[in-house]
Design brief:
Blueprint: E1 2-9, H1 15-26, E2 32-41, E3 46-53, H2 56-68, E4 81-89, E5 104-112, H3 117-127, E6 138-144, E7 150-157, H4 160-172, E8 185-195
Antiparallel strand pairs: 1-3, 1-4, 2-3, 2-8, 4-6, 5-7, 5-8, 6-7
């Protein structure tokens, strides 16, 4: 499965209406809606939409529909910025389906140094075998098919306290981050988001 992550940057306090309009628009096209979130910590007034596509052709067809649409994602306000990214999941991870991971989702993007993807994949595969108490919170990790080389991983936690406790423990015990993976990172950014009540991932 291929994934599309769309970010809508909205005027203040319009995230709910923007998210609902986007979902209505997406329902008319291909792809499976997997998650709808609004940003809480980081860049504010953003809506994030995650969709899955069974084939590259389906993703390409939808990308063309977005490009040709008069109001893509139901956007009627010209001040709203739309950013759409295409990804492929790490091959050793399973595709995701609707589930409950908690009230707080973290989106972490690592921009990689040239040639950094192959060693990053190897490091993550080793670190995730077997899954432990911390890594069970990993929703998805995927690498970009467009733009600069980067990976985006999504984590779900019941609380920020749970996230902090697990990260502190696994860092202290040397079980995280994946060995040699940080050496491949040029820059990074993170954002905490809250799922909408109707989000399949919530």
């Amino acid at each position: 499965m291929l994934y599309e992550l769309t970010t809508l940057s909205c005027p203040p306090l319009t995230e709910g209406a923007v998210a609902k309009a986007a979902c209505e628009w997406m329902a008319q096209g291909p792809g499976q809606l997997l998650g709808v979130w609004r940003s809480e910590i980081g860049d504010l007034f953003q809506v994030k939409l995650l969709r899955g596509f069974e084939t590259a052709q389906a993703l390409e067809d939808e990308r063309r529909r977005v490009l040709m649409a008069k109001e893509p994602f139901g956007v009627t306000d010209p001040s709203i910025r739309v950013n759409t990214e295409s990804y492929r999941r790490f091959a050793f991870l399973s595709d995701i389906s609707p589930a409950s991971f908690g009230n707080f989702y973290e989106f972490r993007t690592y921009f990689l140094k040239p040639g950094g993807l192959t060693p990053t994949l190897a490091s993550w595969q080793n670190a995730l075998a077997p899954i432990n108490e911390y890594t069970s919170h990993l929703v998805l990790n995927m690498y970009a098919l467009d733009g600069p080389p980067r990976i985006t991983h999504i984590w779900g936690f019941s609380s920020l306290e749970e996230r902090g406790r697990l990260r502190a423990r696994y860092y202290a015990e040397g079980l995280w981050p994946p060995k040699d993976a940080p050496a491949q990172v040029a820059t990074a950014k993170t954002m905490i988001c809250l799922p909408e009540p109707y989000s399949p991932l919530r």
